[in-house]
Design brief:
Length: about 100
């Protein structure tokens, strides 16, 4: 379950494709995908956090308060932190000690 969510985050959780400068904030399909992800995992703190970042950063981009590339960088940093944390939990389950 955790591994499947990590894989989904790696491939699906981007605000923008840096190489092509695609603005997924303006993509209806991307917004629907995020809503579906959030609906499917309503109690998962990592999903809630990433959804909040995505929706909030997209709104700031729309308002012109944040540049798209900056929003992308911020989101990607948070996304990688979530992925790394999930990997740590997968490797060292709760209660595991040295």
């Amino acid at each position: 379950m955790i591994r499947a969510l990590m894989v989904a985050m790696v491939f699906a959780f981007s605000i923008a494709d840096a190489a092509a400068e695609v603005n997924y904030c303006n993509e209806t399909a991307a917004a629907k995908e995020w809503t579906a992800i959030l609906d499917s995992k309503p109690n998962d703190p990592a999903v809630i956090k990433l959804a909040a970042y995505r929706f909030g950063l997209c709104e700031l981009v729309r308002q012109g308060r944040v540049e798209l590339n900056d929003a992308t960088d911020i989101f990607e940093m948070e996304r990688w932190q979530v992925i790394q944390r999930r990997q740590e939990l997968d490797i060292h389950p709760k209660g595991w000690t040295l």
